Amino acid sequence: MRALRITLIIAVILGGLFVGADRVAVSMAESKAADKIKSSQGLTTTPSVSIKGFPFLTQVAGKELDEVDVGVDGLTTDAGGGTTVRVSELNAQLHDVRIGGNFSSATADRASGSAHISYADLSRAAGPGVTVSYDPTGTNQVKITGNLLGFSLSARSSVTIVNGDTIKLHAERIPGGSIPQWEDKVRERTDMERKIDGMPQGMRLETVKTDKDGIDVSVAGNNVALTG
């Protein structure tokens, strides 16, 4: 019995050491993955990375991770034409992540997540003098207000996803005006397409929903490049 107790104690100690080593290893891997994602995606901030599943060392030996969660705050994307769009939150859950080569790259079989863009950031993306705000009267609509050629303007715009990487605002109706080509001039300010660049390669914008805090976008993808 004494020998059995000693064996059990040793097993508990070794198990604790293994767990400790496993947690240290996963913490180091998360830090390195965050740095790699930052550099490969050209981010200005370091993302948060959380590797799920236990034990981590066994997953690494098999070069496949169950799940990796990635979060990026304050992602500023190039929308083209010298404009940018700030995504205040981007969260992604990557499943069945395959580690490639000498651990220099990783690819997820599938991924899902969400992104959030505030109305303040949308207004900045729209340009000077234009404000984008919540419109509670319609589904997936926003209100556009501003001044154009000395006239105050107000229009409701629908919000949609285009080509899996672009958020489009399109005014449903333009208030009348006597200036020639008035509607074209107004739409130059109210209508916009802003590309959301900088997401992990392989992820696409899926659906969009407006609420009082901003625009929430669901994202998804297959064969998503986590690093490399």
Automatic annotation (TrEMBL):
InterPro entries on file: DUF2993
Protein name, per record: DUF2993 domain-containing protein
Originating species: Streptomyces botrytidirepellens
